[in-house]
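Lab channel / #folding
Pinned by the channel admin:
"Please post every new chain as: sequence first, then the structure tokens as a reply. Keep commentary short and put observations after the output so the thread stays searchable."

First post following the new format, from NK:
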Amino acid sequence: MSLEHEVIFYTDGRHTSIYIYEPPMDQRLYQAPIDELVDLGIDTISYAVGDCRVLLYDTKVGERWGHNLRRTNHIIWYRAALNVEQFVADGNDPLQVVCDRAHELGFNFIPSLLLGMQHQAPAEVNDCRCSDFCFEHPEYQVGPEPTIPAAQWDDPSRFSYAIAEVRQNRLAVVEELLTYDTDGIELNIYDYAPFFARREIPEHTETFTRFIADVKELCDKAAVEQNRPKRLLVRAGASLAGCKSLGIDLERMIREKIVDTVLAMPPHKTGMMEQHPGGVAELVEAAKGTGVKIIQGISTTVRHDAWRMATREMQTAQAA
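Reply from TO:
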């Protein structure tokens, strides 16, 4: 294991886990996404703890996947709800089980939290991934922005982090996640951005920076209480200007050491797998003298007419 030349592997806790097994799942099946990574040269596992609005562990402050379900529109998402419900009812906490297994096998373990929150109208039939908080607050939506060309592909139903209640909802989940015996937390600020209306970005870029700083304070507090390092990782596009245009002042977060590690991903518009050294280079330059680690992210998505996902050879070439 090496933290100097760290290899981080992301697993989303769903597609290779609760989506594929008929309920009930036991501990062996929950541990399978961890066990399959042994002897692959991986140092740290980044493990998704839910899908934006809902969570896949025994949360006390957030909302669990499927907790308010009446009828579902997809068997896979229903299977996930049944698996987590039964596993918790049997006296297990899914997150604690995978965290303990990762440490038992010598991995660092980082829960990964998606920040996208979207409104849905309450309905008899839904996709199991619905939260009462998002049902009850349509007023938190960004809404359509037809006069702003850059907003053409934005989700108008997403919640705005300009609203204090939205930020506090996520901070409560972050604080809970940090109580586990993990090695920190990852915030995914790469997907679902911008976290404001485009019209709000000039006023609220500072608001989002403060939100990330609040997470860092929670990490530092948990590190003292548990007497162990609690890193704050952020997954972000490898472009300082691109991030800034979305209301994410990544350069300031690096220079002021608000974050500990940046997972630098190729900007979405480049075709997912395309790697441009210039973006990572400017992040590395910004991090000089700060101690902030920059890690190059590798995407598995190709979306080519011949390949949807990267082949082994493509992945190796990216890493090289």
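NK: The chain has two domains: 1-115, 160-320.
TO: also worth noting, The domain at 1-115 is CATH 3.30.750 (Transcription Regulator spoIIAA).
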